[in-house]
Amino acid sequence: MSQSPLPDRLAIDPDSPFHDEALLSQGIGIRFNGAEKTNVEEYCVSEGWIRVAAGTARDRKGKPILLKLKGTVEPFLKGDAA
């Protein structure tokens, strides 16, 4: 792989310390337990979890309420999948 490795943890929320706009603009895909997921808000490879929105529920600040799912997390650049 010629690109730098993807970070262990990444979030799409701009308020998160794990947010990286430059990396997200390249297009990141997530394989979770072998299936590609398109609704991942945050992931952590070393701890083996992803966070996904719980339907349309929102917290008092207007952000989606997230569920933590544990399993095998494999991030990839979407350009590499083709």
UniProtKB/TrEMBL annotation:
Top-level taxon: Bacteria
Pfam family, one: DUF3297
Xref: InterPro entries: DUF3297
Protein name in UniProt: DUF3297 family protein
Source organism (scientific name): Aureimonas flava
